[in-house]
Write a structure and sequence with these properties.
Helix content is 51%, strand content 12%. By secondary structure, it is mainly alpha-helical. Helix 6 runs antiparallel to helix 7.
Amino acid sequence: MNITQMPSGHWRARIYVGFNKGKSQYVSISGVSKKEVELKAAQIQMDRNRKKYNQINHSTIRMTVGEAIDRYIDNLNGVCSPSTLRRYKADRKKFLASLMPIKLCDLTQEAIQLAVSIDSKRYAPKSIHCAHGLLSSALDIYLPNFRLKTKLPQKIEHEVTVPEHDDIRRLLSQVKGSWLEGAILLAACCGLRRSEICGLKVEDIDRKNNTIHIHRTILKDDSGQWIIREATKTTKSKRRIEVAPFIIEALLAIPRTGDYIIGHVPDTISKEFIKLRYELGLNCRFHDLRHYNASVMLALNIPDKYAMERLGYSTPETLKRVYQHTMNSKRREINGQISKQMSDLFDVSAQKL
């Protein structure tokens, strides 16, 4: 909207109302004062918004909450990854069950709060937040004037266990020469995700330049079936990284029957790793090996930009969350340095006294 004063002293506003036949359409209004024009313009905008809402309202108001969420998920086909769609569909079936048969025209904040409170007694806060987020996204489209004011359970921050250098050595020593050794090397030394590890083929390894090309994943589709996807989690996850020569040699030495380096699906990696960690008395998940890789780069003062490139992070926020969980040995080293500095300062102060 553009408001200007005319030579006569009156004020005029031009309001954009759409695009038709290749041209922008405007409505022009005038008044004796700028405030009068602003009020008229605001009324026109409110009328346009009301008409737009009524158009949406007439076509969707009789839908149930469940139908709205189903339609929202269906519209994400081709935009979200199969695993994300599968998680959304699972959340739709599992959470906020009492809301699903309610029609959008009958939905109230009280009903939403009650459904959240019931599920909060059974499920983890993180799961409730995800389910409520799915509901919110659907309502933004099909009931845009509905304002959510739900009180959600407080999230529980779980401590991330980052393996030590000796832990990685023990793990590798226990499975030397096996496909699981290759999986651990790719996670701990290269920072790959499970889906990326399983999607790695021999052709993706450049022995001459000691590089690995990550551009393929193996994951479950929305029906729970394992599929090969010629894409990565995000656009930034598609990358080519340089690795130590010993890693290349170890990967190519793994016995295999096909083109894939590992030859197993992600769930198999997790199950075998759980057995291995119990044998060694360790308390870490397979994904924590990726945190180990991030922590090593932190200890080496690698700039965030390069760490993000190697790990395939699309935003620095994810990297910073991982970096908060530094290795215990590095933490002890830093704490020791601080304590020594304090002791030295105290001794100097005592001498001066």
